[in-house]
Amino acid sequence: MTEQAIAVRDVSPGDLRRWAELYRGYREFYRLPPDEQVVERVWTWLHDDEVEVRGLVAEREGEVVGLAHWRRFHRPSSGTVGLYLDDLFTDPAARGAGVGRALVTALASRAASEGCSVVRWITAEDNAAARRLYDGVARATPWVTYDLSPER
Fold first, then answer.
1. What InterPro entries does UniProt report for this protein, alphabetically (predicted)?
2. Span 6-137: which CATH code?
């Protein structure tokens, strides 16, 4: 695939249809069950000033071909604020064209302009394609991630 100009911008209300297609693809990639309530909820979050999650989209030739969801987080250990990349997804037809790199780079630029100390994210250990990109733009940390489900 040839390199074409990729523009990254904040997600906007007019992106709903294409964003939802990509977000469903992201969920399918991570083997999450289809759930339109989740899709609708996350879309609402992205446009709610009371919710910390924000979104970016990447466009190529006027078509949205990638998305990223991020949020600020406080770092008590350093007394700083970082940006946390929750989700990153590129349309399979646009992979290898620099879309993921453009989204990560745009988030790093935002972090720098806001005086944030780090951009942090996790990925699946077996996501080799993403890890090739990530290894080229960041350093892997020695930290292990844990999830604890609250009792109900």
1. Acyl_CoA_acyltransferase, Bact_Acetyltransf, GNAT_dom
2. 3.40.630.30
